[in-house]
Amino acid sequence: MNSCLIKLEVGSKVYDKENLEDKGTIKSITLAPNGMKDRSLVAILVVDFESGRRLSATSNRFCDVAEEKYEEFYPSVQAINLPK
Fold this sequence. Notes:
Helix content: under 10%
Number of helices: 1
Largest sheet: 5 strands, antiparallel
Strand order of the largest sheet: 5-4-3-2-6
Distance between the termini: 32 Å
Mean pLDDT: 91
Radius of gyration: 14 Å
Structural class: mainly beta
Low-confidence stretches: none
């Protein structure tokens, strides 16, 4: 990873923080409320791992893969470039 601001999307490689030996591929990203009382939005990722398991969890369960080449992502630049 070259930057702390990286773009993760469907197809990106990640690790489960609880199993850093098993690399996975993001299959789905969905925004959802954090709970009944906390309505702030969180990202839910579905990840298929090389071991064959599938995990659905909030994005903070996962981490980047150091040797992967990710696209750098700057939120303010993306916002400027979106059509109105």
